[in-house]
Amino acid sequence: MPEGHTIHRLALDHGKALAGQVLRVSSPQGRFEDAARLDGLRLVRTEAHGKHLFYVFEKSRVLHVHLGLFGRYFAAKSPATRVRPTTRLLLEGAERSFALVGPTACELLSPTRRRELLARLGPDPLRPDADLDVVRAALARRKTPIGQVLLDQSVIAGVGNVYRAEALLVTGIHPERPCKDLSDDQVDALWATLGRMLQDGVRDRRIITVAPEELPGPRSKIRRKEAVYVYGRRTCLRCGGPVSKLTSANRTLYACLACQTG
Ligand SMILES: [Zn+2]
Question: Catalytic site residue 3?
Answer without folding.
Answer: yes
